[in-house]
């Protein structure tokens, strides 16, 4: 540390921005400290702009590396003379009191004084603030600004004010960072400093670590400001000298003012904080004065367990109950001994408040479901003894750490629970937690490319070459080394190399500030006694800590996870629908479900699990169909098994084969049968490793948890120690050394794949409940599921198709019958929710429903516009028309759409003339002339579906394939549902629903999903084929695939590998034989037909693509018909344009393409 340094020290950096200065900082905390060590400087300050985001990370890492941390902040100081030009000062912390004062100052600036995106401190707030050192801010401070504007008297007055406020803790700050104004300022301020006996200190405004990073720094500033690097108006406050200078470089800069350097040392010596980190401080949970927290915990959990046992096991005997009470007593003793009685009481309090106030709460999450105390208190809803869940997996008395319940709430009501906590503990003691978004490899390429003004196509193509893996994210360095295409462009294209080189120093840096998804802090007093607070401009009610989830724990705060789980909303709404629409189910409750329902397990075995919690992916459906679960334990296991490790290891196949008797079940020893029976002898759960360690190895369950952790970390030294302990313990219990080593090796092998059974069991319960509802009340289930995903049209589309597959009819949106949400009508039909129509807001829909309920159904488009025009705009009405919501009033959507302006204007006029006699009072139909209505032809099927998709996000009233189905079935009669494996290539066709790419050992493969209204099939398209036909492969295009059809050995599904791709035009050219025009009676305009054909005649240019035209003439009056082939000069290429013009002339029903 600084005080103990024997060598002569000449300078300490007191002004440094890290990456947490989100607009301009380029230095990571660890790199800063390591850089200071490299420069042999014993201390350094972290002074990010307007925040303390990185303060604790900096404090902890600096001390661990033997560097003295100086905590401070670069702040804006309000300027009442010109509010648009605030000043800057630097605040450093002298001691713990100063640290708390700075936390309060920064918090106050965010909560009360945000201006134009800045947070400002007012000078009067600094009065009587002990423990702080103030640096004047150089040319950007109030003194600097006064001197540079020629107001020396003002500067002197300001200096005296500061000196009075901080008698021995105010310093005049000077810099030589390369800005032109700095030298003039130094010449003016140094004499004043001497005259006023104010010490002067040299700082260097560090923004980046190395000189070579200057351009990357400029890029970062441009990203934040939304400017291009070449913009003449971009920020010019920074210079290439703002890197971490060595002491020698600073001595050279300030050779004429050496005291300015030595004062940096003196300031660093004066800054001594000693933060108590890592000791959790629980909030106070109030109980009666005559009882303790510990007594109340035991009393509450005991009474809770008694209620549960009497309710769930009413006929159980005392021996059975004693098992529960003995474990409860043991858990209570451990909780009390570890000092966590208050924690359990706090959690049960807000959970039970939520349950008693209509907020859906999950049955548990994570290892907390293994606690019987938690079950008894109502924190969890799963009996841990029944499912062999272990308390020590959650709270280990042999490894003291804070318990951590993760609680799932319905997202719509989560904030109500947080408000309850605020009311109970005080709003100044509760906040949520900050998160920091960072520059990922893909995003930083796009961001830097935009700043450089590079073409979007270049940046997009580069970004797409970076593999995406959320678990194992790729860095730019890794991409350069491992991706040949990216490496080639980096080495060969100067633009690309420059872009990547500038992006690399930015990668991984903090890019933005957000709110943690679930973390809530409850402090035992004011939060600012532990950490500063932050809020976005204009969001003073959404307060978060300035420390992230790791640092709040270092600060002594306890984090409670209030997580939002949308499936709980679905369950809640579905239950409400069941109670509302079924007279016999007024008291229906999911908590009363038996877990052995045959209908539910049939649904699971068939893989009919779209929208079933945790079971809806394609891979999971395939596994369910193979596994055929028939017990709740099977559901628990499948959630634990469907992960990369078990799937890749062969463990899943072994499990499936053992369940179905295709492989022998081996328990290794009779005593292990009870532990491994539910998983057919396969070690699936971490709890099984712990139980084997206890039963065979003689470990306590706490010790077994330590062994489990050691196995997960794969520490050779630790594993060697445990191997000896396990063998010794097994021998002492009478087992052979051979069995002990065999079991230890087996546990070690599976420990890396083992999953937390407590979490799996809790989530299996939600999975079972959603599956049960889908099996028994599909209308209610789908209505709830679709209502919960109304903002996601892709999900709505999936649910719409799945509902149809489950024989549920989705009735179209109706302006007179639909409400905001989807609603069940009966056991087999659902009414579409208006909230799922794009461009129509929730408040507008609620008002429409209210108007309808008060004054009756809408009678016409005009009536709707008249009654609802004040709350809904034209674009929203368009969406309603396109969706079919007005079809019950008039099925001609084309007419409704074309008359919209007239209806809106007429409604407007009637509103204005409401108190006067008006033609509208008696004849609403007069809004649009009947002759006009008759002349408006309704949209054809394709137009209708395209407009539906624009409003709903997908094709609702019909299948897009049917726009071409009649024609295409003549060319390719085989339906997708009838496709079977064959050695020869086959043609299949359908609408391209979606397209995605996957990386396999053979390289990139594109997976195209085809749909022909009979079935959906996936087609694998290798890169070389895709590149040849990529122009055809667009969503919603009709395409044909020629390829080999086979059966996938793993899933049993049909598998197709494409050899050739055709679009509709190519199908016609390849397969069409002739074009037939049907002409009835005497209605024939030969001149017009001749004109159309001549216009599209391509005899010379496309001879091989030409087809003959036949005219089939039929005269019903004279009972005469004939078929005439037109001459070769009338041959044509069949195109969409040709067909469109012919259809307009003679009608679509009178044109046939012969294949």
From TrEMBL:
<feature type="domain" description="Polymerase/histidinol phosphatase N-terminal">
    <location>
        <begin position="12"/>
        <end position="79"/>
    </location>
</feature>
<dbReference type="GO" id="GO:0006260">
    <property type="term" value="P:DNA replication"/>
</dbReference>
<dbReference type="InterPro" id="IPR041931">
    <property type="entry name" value="DNA_pol3_alpha_thumb_dom"/>
</dbReference>
<dbReference type="GO" id="GO:0005737">
    <property type="term" value="C:cytoplasm"/>
</dbReference>
<dbReference type="Pfam" id="PF01336">
    <property type="entry name" value="tRNA_anti-codon"/>
</dbReference>
<dbReference type="Pfam" id="PF14579">
    <property type="entry name" value="HHH_6"/>
</dbReference>
<dbReference type="InterPro" id="IPR004013">
    <property type="entry name" value="PHP_dom"/>
</dbReference>
<keyword id="KW-0963">Cytoplasm</keyword>
<dbReference type="InterPro" id="IPR049821">
    <property type="entry name" value="PolIIIA_DnaE1_PHP"/>
</dbReference>
<protein>
    <recommendedName>
        <fullName>DNA polymerase III subunit alpha</fullName>
        <ecNumber>2.7.7.7</ecNumber>
    </recommendedName>
</protein>
<dbReference type="Pfam" id="PF02811">
    <property type="entry name" value="PHP"/>
</dbReference>
<dbReference type="InterPro" id="IPR004805">
    <property type="entry name" value="DnaE2/DnaE/PolC"/>
</dbReference>
<dbReference type="GO" id="GO:0008408">
    <property type="term" value="F:3'-5' exonuclease activity"/>
</dbReference>
<keyword id="KW-0239">DNA-directed DNA polymerase</keyword>
<dbReference type="Pfam" id="PF07733">
    <property type="entry name" value="DNA_pol3_alpha"/>
</dbReference>
<keyword id="KW-0808">Transferase</keyword>
<dbReference type="InterPro" id="IPR029460">
    <property type="entry name" value="DNAPol_HHH"/>
</dbReference>
<dbReference type="GO" id="GO:0003676">
    <property type="term" value="F:nucleic acid binding"/>
</dbReference>
<dbReference type="InterPro" id="IPR040982">
    <property type="entry name" value="DNA_pol3_finger"/>
</dbReference>
<dbReference type="GO" id="GO:0003887">
    <property type="term" value="F:DNA-directed DNA polymerase activity"/>
</dbReference>
<dbReference type="InterPro" id="IPR004365">
    <property type="entry name" value="NA-bd_OB_tRNA"/>
</dbReference>
<dbReference type="Pfam" id="PF17657">
    <property type="entry name" value="DNA_pol3_finger"/>
</dbReference>
<dbReference type="InterPro" id="IPR011708">
    <property type="entry name" value="DNA_pol3_alpha_NTPase_dom"/>
</dbReference>
<keyword id="KW-0235">DNA replication</keyword>
<dbReference type="InterPro" id="IPR016195">
    <property type="entry name" value="Pol/histidinol_Pase-like"/>
</dbReference>
<keyword id="KW-0548">Nucleotidyltransferase</keyword>
<dbReference type="InterPro" id="IPR003141">
    <property type="entry name" value="Pol/His_phosphatase_N"/>
</dbReference>
């Amino acid at each position: 540390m600084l005080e103990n340094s024997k060598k002569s020290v000449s300078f300490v950096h007191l002004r440094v921005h890290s990456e947490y200065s989100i607009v301009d900082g380029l230095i990571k905390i660890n790199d800063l400290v390591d850089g200071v060590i490299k420069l042999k400087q014993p201390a350094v300050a972290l002074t990010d702009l307007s925040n303390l985001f990185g303060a604790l990370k900096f404090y902890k890492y600096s001390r661990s590396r033997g560097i003295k941390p100086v905590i401070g902040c670069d702040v804006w100081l309000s300027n009442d003379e010109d509010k648009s030009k605030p000043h800057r000062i630097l605040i450093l912390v002298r001691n713990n009191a100063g640290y708390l004062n700075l936390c309060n100052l920064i918090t106050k600036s965010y909560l009360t004084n945000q201006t134009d995106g800045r947070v400002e401190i007012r000078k009067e707030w600094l009065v009587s603030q002990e423990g702080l050192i103030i640096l004047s801010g150089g040319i950007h401070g109030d003194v600097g600004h006064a001197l540079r504007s020629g107001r020396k008297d003002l500067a002197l007055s300001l200096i005296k004010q500061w000196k009075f406020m901080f008698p021995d803790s105010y310093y005049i700050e000077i810099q030589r960072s390369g800005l032109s104004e700095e030298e003039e300022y130094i010449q003016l301020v140094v004499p004043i400093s001497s005259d006023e006996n104010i010490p002067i200190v040299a700082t260097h405004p560090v923004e980046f670590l190395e000189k070579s990073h200057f351009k990357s720094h400029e890029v970062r500033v441009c990203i934040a400001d939304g400017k291009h690097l070449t913009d003449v108006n971009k920020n010019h406050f920074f210079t290439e000298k703002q890197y971490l200078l060595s002491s020698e470089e600073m001595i050279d800069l300030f050779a004429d003012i050496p005291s300015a350097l030595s004062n940096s040392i003196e300031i660093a010596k004066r800054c001594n904080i000693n933060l108590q980190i890592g000791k959790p401080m629980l909030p106070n949970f109030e109980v009666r004065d005559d009882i303790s927290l510990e007594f109340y915990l035991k009393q509450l959990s005991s009474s809770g367990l008694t209620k549960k046992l009497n309710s769930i096991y009413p006929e159980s005997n005392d021996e059975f109950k004693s098992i529960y009470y003995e474990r409860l007593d043991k858990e209570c003793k451990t909780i009390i001994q570890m000092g966590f009685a208050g924690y359990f009481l706090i959690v049960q309090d807000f959970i039970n408040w939520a349950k008693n106030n209509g907020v859906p709460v999950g049955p548990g999450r994570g290892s907390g479901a293994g606690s019987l105390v938690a079950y008894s208190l109502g924190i969890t809803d799963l009996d841990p003894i029944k499912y062999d869940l272990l308390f020590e997996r959650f709270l280990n008395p042999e490894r003291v750490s804070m318990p951590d319940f993760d609680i799932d709430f319905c997202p719509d009501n989560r904030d109500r629970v947080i408000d309850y906590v605020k009311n109970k503990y005080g709003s100044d003691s509760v906040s949520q937690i900050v998160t920091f978004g960072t520059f990922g490899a893909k995003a930083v390429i796009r961001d830097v490319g935009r700043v450089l003004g590079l073409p979007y196509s270049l940046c997009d193509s580069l970004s797409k070459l970076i593999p995406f893996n959320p678990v194992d994210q790729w860095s730019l360095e890794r991409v350069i080394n491992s991706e040949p295409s990216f490496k080639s462009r980096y080495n060969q294209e100067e633009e690309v190399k420059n872009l990547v080189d500038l992006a690399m120093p930015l990668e991984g840096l903090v890019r933005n500030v957000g709110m943690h998804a679930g973390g809530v802090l409850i402090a035992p007093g004011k939060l600012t006694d532990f950490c500063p607070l932050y809020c976005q401009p204009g969001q003073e009610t959404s307060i978060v800590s300035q420390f992230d989830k790791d640092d709040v724990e270092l600060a002594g705060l306890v984090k409670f996870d209030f997580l939002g789980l949308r499936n709980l909303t679905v369950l809640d709404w579905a239950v409400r629908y069941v109670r509302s629409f079924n007279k016999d189910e007024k008291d229906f409750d999911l908590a009363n479900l038996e877990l052995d329902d045959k209908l539910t397990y049939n649904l699971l075995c068939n893989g009919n699990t779209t929208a079933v919690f945790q079971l809806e992916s394609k891979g999971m459906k395939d596994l369910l169909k193979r596994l055929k679960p028939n017990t709740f334990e099977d559901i628990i296991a499948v959630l634990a098994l469907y992960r990369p490790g078990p799937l890749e290891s062969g463990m899943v196949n072994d499990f499936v084969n053992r369940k179905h008797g295709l492989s022998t079940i081996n328990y290794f020893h009779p005593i292990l049968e009870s532990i491994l029976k539910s998983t057919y002898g396969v070690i699936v759960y971490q709890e099984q490793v712990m139980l084997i360690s206890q039963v065979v190895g003689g470990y306590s369950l706490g010790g077994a948890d330590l062994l489990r952790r050691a196995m997960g970390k794969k520490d050779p030294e630790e594993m060697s120690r445990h191997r000896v302990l396990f063998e010794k313990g097994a021998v002492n219990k009478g087992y052979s050394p051979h069995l002990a080593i065999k079991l230890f090796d087996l546990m070690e092998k599976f420990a890396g794949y083992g999953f937390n059974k407590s979490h799996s069991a809790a989530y299996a319960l939600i999975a079972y409940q959603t599956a049960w509802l889908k099996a028994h009340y599909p209308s209610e289930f789908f209505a709830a599921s679709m209502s919960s995903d109304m903002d996601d049209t892709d999900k709505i589309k999936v649910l719409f198709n799945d509902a149809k597959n489950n024989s549920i009819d989705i009735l179209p949106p109706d302006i007179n019958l639909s409400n905001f949400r989807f609603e069940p009508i009966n056991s087999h039909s659902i009414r579409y929710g208006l909230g799922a129509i794009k461009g129509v807001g929730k408040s507008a829909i609620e008002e429409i429903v209210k108007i309808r309920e008060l004054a009756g159904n809408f009678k016409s488009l005009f009536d709707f516009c008249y009654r609802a025009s004040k709350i809904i705009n034209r674009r929203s009405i368009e969406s309603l028309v396109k969706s079919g919501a007005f079809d019950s009033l008039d099925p001609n959507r084309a007419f409704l759409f074309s008359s919209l302006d007239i209806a809106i204007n007429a409604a407007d006029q009637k509103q204005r003339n409401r108190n006067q006699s008006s033609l509208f009072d008696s004849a609403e139909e007069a809004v649009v002339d009947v002759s006009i209505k008759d002349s408006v032809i309704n949209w054809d099927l394709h137009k209708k579906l395209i407009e539906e998709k624009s409003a709903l996000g997908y094709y609702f009233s019909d299948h897009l394939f049917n726009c071409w189905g009649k024609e295409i079935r003549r060319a390719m009669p085989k339906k997708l549902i009838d496709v079977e494996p064959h050695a020869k290539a086959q043609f299949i066709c359908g609408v391209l629903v979606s397209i995605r790419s996957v990386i396999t050992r053979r390289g990139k493969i594109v997976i195209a999903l085809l749909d022909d209204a009979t079935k959906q099939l996936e087609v694998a398209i290798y890169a070389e084929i895709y590149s040849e036909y990529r122009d055809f492969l667009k969503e919603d295009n009709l395409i044909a695939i020629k390829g080999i059809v086979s059966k996938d050995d793993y899933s049993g599904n049909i598998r197709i590998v494409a050899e050739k791709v055709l679009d509709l035009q190519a199908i016609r050219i390849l397969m069409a034989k002739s074009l037939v025009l049907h002409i009835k009676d005497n209605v024939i305009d030969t001149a017009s037909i001749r004109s159309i054909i001549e216009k599209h005649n391509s005899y010379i240019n496309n001879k091989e693509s030409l087809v003959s035209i036949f005219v089939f003439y039929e005269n019903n009056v004279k009972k005469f018909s004939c078929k005439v082939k037109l001459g070769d000069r009338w041959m044509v290429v069949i195109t969409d344009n040709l067909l469109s013009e012919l259809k307009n002339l003679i009608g679509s029903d009178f044109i046939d393409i012969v294949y």
